[in-house]
Amino acid sequence: MTPHVTGAAVKAADRAHVFHSWSAQALIDPLAVAGAEGSYFWDYDGNRFLDFSSQLVNTNIGHQHPKVVAAIQEQAGRLCTLAPGFAVDVRSEAARLIAERTPGDLDKIFFTNGGAEAVENAVRMARLHTGRHKVLSAYRSYHGATAAAINLTGDPRRWPSDTASAGVVHFWSPFLYRSPFHATTEAEECERALAHLADTLAFEGPQSVAAIILESVPGTAGIMTPPPGYLAGVRELCDRHGIVFVLDEVMSGFGRTGAWFAAEHWDVTPDLITFAKGVNSGYVPLGGVAISGAIAETFATRPYPGGLTYSGHPLACAAAVATINVMAEEGIVENAARIGAEVIGPGLAEIAERHPSVGEVRGLGTFWAVELVRDEETREPLVPYNASGADNAPMAEFAAACKASGLWPFVNMNRTHVVPPCTVTEAEAKEGLALLDEALTVADRHTAGA
After folding, report:
1. What pLDDT does residue 2 have?
2. What's the CA gap between 420 and 408, in Å, rounded?
3. Cβ atoms within 10 Å of 156's Cβ, excluding its own
């Protein structure tokens, strides 16, 4: 960007020509960003923000990592693009590095441009592999905004596009804090959630179900870590009925939870894993599906009816190779685990004790949610489900307080998510928690006792 460019000019061009996602266009005021590095980004007026959102929970290695930028530059100088039908060194190497880190025999990688396309293709593979059509997914979920993915999604972004004829059936996944099963312990929640899923399958006809898809740890829907035994129980139900088990690791993968893939925490191997975001920190769009041997074999002599012009794009794959190598060399996955266990987790627990607006904190690695409530006893959310306008004012005020102090939050419904880059330092994490602590006094004003 040339030095004479101003934030006002950037914003004016944005307002004139850019159509933004998930937004009423006349009601938004996008920040004009001049640059970014590591855990921070800044505007044209020099205001600096600690990125506690990792943008869309994808800059896992932070902004502008020099080794990844250099790898993209080198690849651009050597071979910018090539159709998916060719064998390309960086595409092959990216697939190998990903396959090395997936559980079990998920050793074949189908590349997409992002997470939604990964979900689209995973579902297509499951349907073709099984010869069945129905897919089960959780209400508290987000799987993407394309045709099948948005129907699989459980959150309200689904509603305007939900055809109710896409072969999708939703069910309740475990979430003890707001248990749909009246459970009082994690063990009860697990047992009852699995019984509910088994009943759903029985009434839908398991022989008609191609796949069950779950986020290993749901992301935007609330970062609810599954209780011990739940994912293993879903795996067993899938095995019993010949159903493909798909784990969506688009947000939880590549170090975010302190493991390469979140499934490792529960020692579960699905049939398909969808990934994107952290695979190359979002530096160039990339996603994909890691495929088990059995499903890959389905398409050994039968053509797979799906493809993308930019599948395995060389620039994106070069960024993935560099990102994965950097994460291994610099111990970034281990850093996320340590910061979560030693800094963010304990720090949020202390914050929760001080603020009546904090109902629960939960998470692992650099993947945490803070549930904001009006009343700690009744657990009434700080704002209603899917609130907007005046109803959402308490969360809007809280988010504004964060930004005014130099903290960029990830806010969804009645929650703020603590999701800094996996490279975040102890000092940066503590700085962010202190700013969050301060901003929560704004939320406290809307609680029952205020």
Report:
1. 54
2. 10
3. 12
